[in-house]
Amino acid sequence: MVTDKIENLGSYPQLEKYQKEIEEFIKALDMQELEEGRYVLREDTLIALVQKYHTRDKDSSRMESHKKYADLQYIHKGEEMIYTDRVEELVLAEDRTPEEDILFYEPRRDSGADVLKSGMFGYYEPQDAHMPCITYLNSCDVVKVVFKIKMI
């Protein structure tokens, strides 16, 4: 799990080969309002999902992880809390793989969380459970890009 400002993206060797495409996509987002949806940046290995939503209460959310893809969640506008945990310490509640590449877990006491604000990203590999889109101080509108990075 990594939380940092997007200008530090090059500091992470595991993201190095995707850095150029990610930065170019973010620049395009700055220049024009991209529609919500799926953008294939590099065949099936790097996909950008543009999302626009209102943050929600933690009680209406579930911890999740993925097997095939890592998530790099970039906050373009707004802010949110992302709760985190280790997959190995959680109890699986629902497995939607391989069709949707998502696993959900039973709730338990919080083990950690990060606040992501405009210009920041969180990076979550398959062993990193995460619960995104949660209201931080006040509910707000968020524009986020989730970069799906193929792991297997």
From TrEMBL:
A Pfam family that the UniProt record links to this protein: DUF386
One GO location term (cellular component): cytosol
InterPro entries (alphabetical): NanQ/TabA/YiaL, NanQ/TabA/YiaL_sf
PANTHER family in alphabetical order: EVOLVED BETA-GALACTOSIDASE SUBUNIT BETA, PROTEIN YIAL
Name the UniProt record assigns to this protein: YhcH/YjgK/YiaL family protein
Source organism of the structure: [Clostridium] citroniae WAL-17108
Upper taxonomic lineage: Bacteria, Bacillati, Bacillota, Clostridia, Lachnospirales
